[in-house]
Amino acid sequence: MKSVFVAAGVLAPLAAAHSIFQQAGSGSIDFGTSCTRMPPNNSPVTSVGSSDLACNVGGSRGVAGLCEVSAGDSFFVEMHAQPNDRSCANEAIGGNHFGPVIVYMAKVNDAKTADGASASWFKVDEFGYDAGSKTWGTDTLNKNCGKRTFKIPSKIPAGDYLVRAEAIALHTAGSSGGAQFYMSCYQVRVANSGSGQLPAGVRLPGAYSASDPGILINIWGDFGTYKVPGPAVIDQSYF
């Protein structure tokens, strides 16, 4: 959905309930959006075969900033519905946009120039659906002011990485093409005193199919166990 102008010429808020992964941080450090490849708006990607699935629309182009961390550090990504609105009073992603939250990383030669679509992505974190508490990954974002915190694997090599944060809204996923993918990529430089090892990865697009049970699903009925799309989170030995 394009941004629209009201009669007075003021830019109207972006689409309600849609959302953007915007800020990042590590520990007590708030990087803001300094290393974020910000999408042009809060509209989702809806095709699993689109090159935009890697880092969103325009996300193949890098930005000037890098977020510098060390292997083993905690790192958070932060989603909000409107640009630069970090108010915890507003839902990070509302409108019954229930679904999983997933974080990938990819080792690249230069985080400022890597396109994302040709990268090898490995999954470092996910929250799908907890049947006991009836909690979706997106619910955890709303409960934590948009934040999802994970650990940078301690055993990966030093160097440049892209971090890809994703929420998949499944409220209209009962028909093919109905799932909505919200993702942003962050440019990160990881320091590590050891040599490290790199997990096997997947391509995005490529790792998802429109018929995957975690993508083509009616969440309003009895769907049983939910399977998060993509590969499994890398082995705990990497952490």
Automatic annotation (TrEMBL):
<keyword id="KW-0378">Hydrolase</keyword>
<dbReference type="GO" id="GO:0016787">
    <property type="term" value="F:hydrolase activity"/>
</dbReference>
<dbReference type="GO" id="GO:0046872">
    <property type="term" value="F:metal ion binding"/>
</dbReference>
<dbReference type="GO" id="GO:0004497">
    <property type="term" value="F:monooxygenase activity"/>
</dbReference>
<keyword id="KW-0119">Carbohydrate metabolism</keyword>
<keyword id="KW-0503">Monooxygenase</keyword>
<keyword id="KW-0964">Secreted</keyword>
<keyword id="KW-1015">Disulfide bond</keyword>
<comment type="similarity">
    <text>Belongs to the polysaccharide monooxygenase AA9 family.</text>
</comment>
<dbReference type="Pfam" id="PF03443">
    <property type="entry name" value="AA9"/>
</dbReference>
<keyword id="KW-0624">Polysaccharide degradation</keyword>
<feature type="signal peptide">
    <location>
        <begin position="1"/>
        <end position="17"/>
    </location>
</feature>
<dbReference type="InterPro" id="IPR005103">
    <property type="entry name" value="AA9_LPMO"/>
</dbReference>
<keyword id="KW-0560">Oxidoreductase</keyword>
<keyword id="KW-0186">Copper</keyword>
<dbReference type="InterPro" id="IPR049892">
    <property type="entry name" value="AA9"/>
</dbReference>
<protein>
    <recommendedName>
        <fullName>lytic cellulose monooxygenase (C4-dehydrogenating)</fullName>
        <ecNumber>1.14.99.56</ecNumber>
    </recommendedName>
</protein>
<dbReference type="GO" id="GO:0030245">
    <property type="term" value="P:cellulose catabolic process"/>
</dbReference>
<feature type="domain" description="Auxiliary Activity family 9 catalytic">
    <location>
        <begin position="33"/>
        <end position="221"/>
    </location>
</feature>
<keyword id="KW-0479">Metal-binding</keyword>
<dbReference type="GO" id="GO:0005576">
    <property type="term" value="C:extracellular region"/>
</dbReference>
<keyword id="KW-0136">Cellulose degradation</keyword>
<keyword id="KW-0732">Signal</keyword>
